[in-house]
Fold this sequence. Notes:
The structure holds 2 protein chains of 2 kinds.
Chain A: E1 4-7, E2 10-13, E3 19-25, E4 30-31, E5 36-37, E6 39-44, E7 51-55, E8 59-60, E9 68-73, E10 76-81, E11 90-96, E12 103-104, E13 108-112
Parallel strand pairs in A: 2-13
Antiparallel strand pairs in A: 1-3, 3-10, 4-5, 6-7, 6-11, 7-8, 9-10, 11-12, 11-13
Chain B: E1 3-7, E2 10-12, E3 18-25, E4 34-39, E5 45-51, E6 58-60, E7 68-73, E8 78-83, E9 92-99, E10 108-111, E11 115-119
Parallel strand pairs in B: 2-11
Antiparallel strand pairs in B: 1-3, 3-8, 4-5, 4-9, 5-6, 7-8, 9-10, 9-11
Amino acid sequence: xxxxxxxxxxLAVSLGERATINCKSSQSVLYSSNNKNYLGWYQQKPGxxxxxxIYWASTRESGVPxxxxxxxxxxxxxxxxxxxxxxxxxxxxxxxxYSIPFxxxxxxxxxxx
Amino acid sequence: xxxxxxxxxxxxxxxGSLRLSCAASGFTFSSYAMSWARQAPGxxxxxxxxxxxxxxxTYYAGSVKGRFTISRDNSKNTLYLQMNSLRAEDTAxxxxxxxxxxxxxxxxxxxxxxxxxTVSS
Lengths: 113, 121
């Protein structure tokens, strides 16, 4: 199974500042045939289901604010939240859908400093 | 508008069975792979199962393989999860999710609100 790790476990960022979350997979999730990274990012606010932010590592879902961006390839990925807003307080998960069983990272909790 | 409405959760004794349903609307159900994921109380997300749309293949997490069965009825736009031999560690909110393509190897793009399954005596 591919093991997903995230760092940090939690972070507190001032309003308007940048939050950076890292995600690492135990093996590459880059499919060479189509040059796509099978990696998604999800946001989960308290008491709500997850919501997709990013897929294919860097493609923003329709309607997601452009302060959210994804980057990385192979085994190392980053979710960046530029100019953090109060409504961004949530837990963020990465997930690989390259190899079954698909696996999630443990989550990173983002709070306001 | 995509809507996914789970039902069938509840309290069940260890060793018991439960069938979850997910009524889908707002998209052509038969054209998309569908997934189940779960979240134990206060814990992170765990992928459970997926059923492809292109060939109806099914796949499972090791923790549920042999006990859970995913299926779909395209005529009713409904996804199912039959859960047998339930254990205390299966206690979780179960989410139905729509994938973005017909292949099982597609990202999830919509999640339902979830239904709580509690396994306890």
